Records
---
Amino acid sequence: MPDNFSRTDLDTPSTGPRRRLLAYNDDAVGVGAEKVARFLGTGRYLMWQTIIVIVWICLNVGGFWWNWDVYPFILLNLAFSTQAAYAAPLILLAQNRQDDRDRVSLNEDRRRAEETKADTEFLARELAGLRIAVGENVTRDYLRRELDDLGDMLRRIEDKLEDQRNDGRTDDGPSDTAR
């Protein structure tokens, strides 16, 4: 081993840009994979596949002069195998992209939930502060009730004074107001 390399240099993979033989856009491939996966999961695909298989079998069994795939239908099996070999990775790629979208959505939902919780806690603190402040101040209803009670008390006092004046007139003669 040359002296200019250390053990950690050999263990660490290089992070430089790699050159690709074929240049392709990962997102475009992913979008295409999602379209294919969506199509493979539809009744339309199953209908067309069934029609193609029935036509294939009819043309090869029907005794036509160009029956290219005789009874064990090896070519048809090869076509199905090839289709399955491409469909499975495309479906997995579409699922991975959906998982990525779900993860981003979940993180966004968590962020919103944290903001909502913080806002709710702030409002609860503010409301508690207002309740404490209002509890120390007089409310409109409390003031009305106290004024009504005070008015009732004043009426009773006036009634007692009036009763005392009326009692004093009948016993002593003229009241103090006449003097």
---
Amino acid sequence: MNLLVKQTFAATVLSTMIAGTVFAAPSEAPPAFVKRVADSLISNLKANHAQLNNRAAVNAIVRKNLDPNVDAQAFTRIVMGTYANSSTPAQRAQFEKNFRATLIENYGSAFAKYSNQTYSMRPYKDTNAKYPVVTIDFNNNGEKIPVAFQLSDAGSQWKVRNINVSGIDLGLQFRNQFAANVKRNGGNLDKAIATFKPDADAAVNKK
């Protein structure tokens, strides 16, 4: 399965609401939000195709298009799992910083291989779920790879809090990877956070 397509968004993940503060609901419908993010990323890759052999340039494209649309605090808690409850705010902040940086590198490597893949959106049914899910089928040389985006309401806009690729829950797989890293470091959470490098390819090939 093509690494680029499997890793197209990575990312999974969670801007929390400030207690006692009232926000306006997102003005976009969930599928409109996902389509806008996907179209923006693809158009930027096409426009900068000549620079895709430059890792720094690719990482900048990924960061520009994905960072503002990912619920990072939620992603941190999803991936840290039970360790999120026993960690300090400083440890969670460091985990989020390191995790985002390594994901950018992970996905940047995949995007460098971009070769005009296309996608189609599946019909969306609004069920008033707390975390709406929008699914896209990425088309790669005749192969359809479903990518489901789970969204959270960040007040003024939707954000991506988790991703499911071909039936594989990336948040859960990254959580398992992190838990294994904690064990390798003898339960030392600081060392586990400092050395954790999420492997998206291993996650989506977990079947």
---
Amino acid sequence: MRLAVVILNYNTPGDTIACLKTLKQAKIPKGLYVETTLVDNASTDDSVDLIKSKFPEVRLIENITNQGFAGGNNVGIKAALEENPTHILLLNPDTLIDQNFFVSILNSAITNPKVGIVTPLIYFAKGYEFHQKYAKNELGRVVWSAGGRIDWANVYGTNAHVDEVDQGQFEKIEDTDFATGACMLIRRQVIDQIGLLNQNYFLYLEDLEFSQRAKRAGWRIVFDPSIKLWHKVSQSSGIGSSLNDYFITRNRLLFGLRYAPLRTKLALLREAIRFLIFGRPAQKTAVADFFTFKLGRGSFLGRQT
């Protein structure tokens, strides 16, 4: 197996360096070749210099402009494909892996030729849990994602089993609605068949859209709990922010009007009209941009940066 790891950095050198350090310390089993490509998404801090000084061996690509999660990762995927990998691993820079991470990947459900994408068991990193209700010995075992579910009636994707403590209940490999972009193991043939992430989304729901295209092309998407990692869950663009308002509103329309049932599509259109009249400013802009085909970065982000 030839595995290309793609990491996207944007103004988070501390997290990215910590992630790269765990990658460097992990065991590489016989039969697995790993190469890491890091894309800097036009950071405005000293990310590039810091990462170069700490990890000169990592291939670093510097984007001139911020191309969002989808576009930034696509730059890394295209570069990685030049080395002819058998699999691509999209990995958030605010994640940490353990020493057996690559051993687990080599022996995971991805060995099944019908499986196109694998999503792992992702815990909150210690101190990054949503709630402060856990005993000290439970920290590091609180689940952030154990697969994903799509609520087709409301066009939302949610992580499965979020906030549960792992007590050994996650043992089965199961089909899942989508794989989270925080850590997505993709068979090369999937990308060859369906293409890259959809850059119209820029930020949010691009993992749902990619997963849907893969499923409709006949690939299975599975949750494999043998692969584990920890996520420093960010609250920087969380629920309630204008950034979240804009991209979730616009991308729900983009996703739902393509993939959802007819009844849901009609409900989305009614909701869009309400947002245009009564919505928050970012929601109004999002709906207007959708119907005037201002996708990708959209007009909202241009005013914020």
---
Amino acid sequence: MSALLAGPLPESLNSAISLIVAFVLGTLIGAERQYRQRTAGLRTNVLVALGAAAFVDLGMRLEGAAGGTRTVAYVISGVGFLGAGVIMKEGMNVRGLNTAATLWCSAAVGAFAGADLPVEALFVTVAVLAGNTLLRPLVNTINRAPIDESATEATYEVQVTTAPEEAGPARDLLVERLEAASYPVGGIEVVERGEDAVEVVATLVATAVEAAELDAVTAALARMPGIRHATWSVQTAD
């Protein structure tokens, strides 16, 4: 930080400036997250940036550039664990990926500030804000565009619901019907759905299928003895 001012600065003052830079830039990122009511908002992003700056600055003061480099490596892995805590899976939907990525970027901003690189920290902050705001219209436009499922890499699952004691026969029947329709099964599992029901879920190997064919397969399965319900679902890759 002393490179921005005339002459060297006392170490304590240099650290204070690094923390102030991290605080201000973390506030800019966090304010946008708070405005959109995300899980990790203003305070979280500020604390991540401050913590990263403090640890990197401490590493540099103790062991110079080598200490700062090692500390950055630990900050990257540590924030990875923190980001994992805000990712939630709800059914087939995953939420919080963008919030976790933003926390990671806040840590990068703090690391730049702690390493006495405030201009670079500002550049990262601008890029993060641009990614979270300016790209939103493009994302919305892409999301509204019709999807050609035959050209999309996706995971297809076929589920049948039956009684626990019928899980084995239902599994065999499900595999048999899918393979007869030329849809080999890549994996199959049995999921408990209460005391009197289980769901047999088959994941298909194919990356694209015909919806009408799977509709026919599930309709035939639903009419079989012991099968309470049959359906299929698709999840496109990220």
